[in-house]
């Protein structure tokens, strides 16, 4: 009887099947992780606009020419809605780009009349796993 060296075809097929099953489980989880990180990145891009918005209001400005005056700019992840009028109850809004699960969704920071800011999004409750903590649907 000869000593067999290496793997048989069936052993290799089993390994390939196991890898395929693991990939089928991991890929959707990875895509969800990417979508959530893109939403969080969109929020991070508009958050600095709150400070500049407050500064502009305190300086007595009632409008800005473009979003650059608030220290904001569009990116690969976010198209920022142009702000023209500065009011006591304004907002800074981002239309998300990127992952197909969140493309076109909006995330914004809204200023209340008392000067507090809140994060809101139009991402539905069904997709709440993409909403950053501290943000609400609305």
TrEMBL record:
The keyword Coiled coil does not apply. The keyword Cell division does not apply. One of its GO terms (cellular component) is pilus. GO terms for biological process: cell adhesion. It comes from the Bacteria. The chain crosses the membrane at residues 12-30. Keywords: Fimbrium, Membrane, Methylation, Transmembrane, Transmembrane helix. It holds the Pfam family Pilin. Gene3D superfamilies: Glycoprotein, Type 4 Pilin (3.30.700.10). Belongs to the N-Me-Phe pilin family. This is Prepilin-type cleavage/methylation domain-containing protein. It comes from Stenotrophomonas maltophilia. The lineage of its organism: Bacteria, Pseudomonadati, Pseudomonadota, Gammaproteobacteria, Lysobacterales.
């Amino acid at each position: 009887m000869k000593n067999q060296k290496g793997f048989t075809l069936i052993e290799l097929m089993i390994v390939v099947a196991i890898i395929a099953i693991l990939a089928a489980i991991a890929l959707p989880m990875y895509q969800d992780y990417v979508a959530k990180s893109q939403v969080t990145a969109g929020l991070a891009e508009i958050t600095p606009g709150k400070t500049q918005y407050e500064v502009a209001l305190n300086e007595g400005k009632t409008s800005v020419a473009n979003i650059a005056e608030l220290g904001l700019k569009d990116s690969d992840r976010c198209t920022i809605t142009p702000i023209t009028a500065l009011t006591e109850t304004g907002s800074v809004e981002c239309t998300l780009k990127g992952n197909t699960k969140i493309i076109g969704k909006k995330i914004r920071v809204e200023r209340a009349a008392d000067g507090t800011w809140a994060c809101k999004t139009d991402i539905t409750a069904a997709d709440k796993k993409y909403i950053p903590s501290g943000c609400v649907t609305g």
